Amino acid sequence: MTAQPPRSSFARPASATGLGADAGLVSGEAVELEVRAARLGSRVLALLIDVAAQLVIAVLLLIVAGILLDSFAGTGPPDQALMTALQTVGVVLILVGYPVSWETLNHGRTPGKLAVGLRVVRDDGGRVGFRQSLTRGLVGVAVEWPGLVLPLLTWAVSVTVTMTDPRGRRLGDLAAGTMVIHDRSPTGYGHVPVMVPPLTGWARSLDLTRLDDGLALAVRQLLGRRGTLTEAARLRLARSLWAEVAAVTSPPPPSNMPDWAYLAAVHAERHARARQRLARTRSVSTTLWPELAPAAPEAAGSGLTWPVRPAAPPPPSTQALVTPVLAATPQGGTDR
Questions:
Q1: 267 lies in which domain range?
Q2: Burial level of 101, CB count in 10 A (0-12/13-18/19+)?
Q3: Are 226 and 197 spatial neighbours (Cβ–Cβ below 8 Å)?
Q4: Preceding omega of 253 cis (within 30 degrees of 0)
Q5: Region annotation Disordered: residue ranges (predicted)?
Q6: Please, are residues 116 and 161 in contact by the beta-carbon 8 Å criterion?
């Protein structure tokens, strides 16, 4: 029976359908958009920023109202009905008008969402309009925040719905057909296994449909730490991963192939195909949201365009050893 690698060293990530999954948006061109759904933590942080902004607006409105009342104080006591109407209008403007106007005019971003890097979009990935923003705002004020109808109960229901929904949607999102996504995603370069040239043709014919993200990550971690593991541990883990990868890929590898070469070829081919899919996805995403397209400045002094992959770190500096080159002369000859 094939030994399994210790999960403490190479733990696989959660399934792609879990809380860390992508939003799974599908555009009108039937292309799946690789965007991340915003979760409860980032949404609460954005809400706190928006609440602080709403409090500042409320204070400013109170100051303006006080100045106006003082200016009309000589005409008699203020009308209570008028005062109640002004208070109602102020509350509606702050709680409903603030998010609705920002999301409608700023393409789904309030100041809080803009600061955190979030955006409200439709379920199909399109921009939200006034109708979706108004629905989200009304449902949010009524049953979420501040929750004018049974606050404690509706808060608990809203948090439960947000945490259990695959896309992290709240009640207002479900009612409006929207969701909140990250429009800024971190980009980093990790260890990417290099394709072994003699295996290029074989790798292009691989069927990788059953190779999941967890197994690919385990292979990548092993190849990245190959130089830090003992020979016995490396062989044990490589043979285990070889068996797992070979069970879900086809055709089988050529005979007498080293374990590291096989794993590197499989992972490099998977990475190359993922880059091709990402390029197609980004072209569609840029069409839907042109403002998300990254700037492409030209690198100074070169013909390269952005993004330019950072070069490998330079080796430690050492003192250059200069060896003089002596001119070759015929044996026994002298220079005159």
A1: 197-291
A2: middle
A3: no
A4: no
A5: 299-336
A6: no
Q: Where are the beta strands (DSSP E) in the chain?
A: 25-26, 32-33, 36-37, 118-122, 178-182
Pick the closest to residue 99 from 177, 173, 22 (CA basis): 173
Structural domain total, the chain? 2
Q: Give CA–CA dist 299/306, Å, rounded.
A: 7
Q: How far apart are CA 33 and CA 22, in angstroms?
A: 9
Mean pLDDT confidence for 127-134 = 93
Whole-model pTM: value is 0.51
Task: Supply the Cα-derived Rg of the chain in whole angstroms.
Answer: 30
Query: Residue 319 pLDDT more than 50?
Result: no
| CB crowding 184-196: b at 16 or more within 10 Å, else e | eeeeeeeebbebb
Where among 129, 152, 182 does a domain terminate? Answer: 182
State mean pLDDT over 34-40: 81
* Dihedral pair phi/psi, residue 175, rounded to 5°: -70, -35
Encoding tokens for residue 301?
């002094």
Q: If you search the block for the tokens 């061109």, which residue do you land on?
A: 29
CA distance 163 to 167: 9
Distance CA 254, CA 201 (A): 11
Same domain, 73 and 152: yes
Q: Among residues 182, 208, 230, which one ends one of the domains? A: 182
- Please tell me the distance from the alpha carbon of residue 190 to that of residue 139, in angstroms, as a whole number: 43
Task: Give the best-scoring range by mean pLDDT among 12-21, 79-88, 128-137.
Answer: 128-137
